[in-house]
What does this fold into?
Amino acid sequence: MGCTFSIHSAVARESKFRTAVPPERILVETDHGWADPPAAIPCRIEWVEHLVAQQLSSSVEDVRGLVWGNLARIIRDTGTEHLLPPALRTLLRAGSDGQERSGPGRAS
It folds into this structure.
């Protein structure tokens, strides 16, 4: 089908997505509340990465690299890279090699 699935903390905690969703089809999301300050978002992403890593019996770093690679593939396949800010384009190009990314808002 070619679908990509965005996993948030409730899905990562309470489902067995790992048996139905191939790793190359996973993205993570915060699913944070509308009142959460922007500073809370990176912490929530790290929590979801942790939960997904547990489900996949993997490390957080490997999950982060997987997700960045998946996102880079989607951007490349849809030809939408030109719509992104230059700094994000650079991160996604680097992320397509499967290595851990510091990502926006993260220390390198």
Summary: Residues 5-95 form a domain with the TIM Barrel fold (CATH 3.20.20.140). The first strand starts at residue 5 and ends at 7.
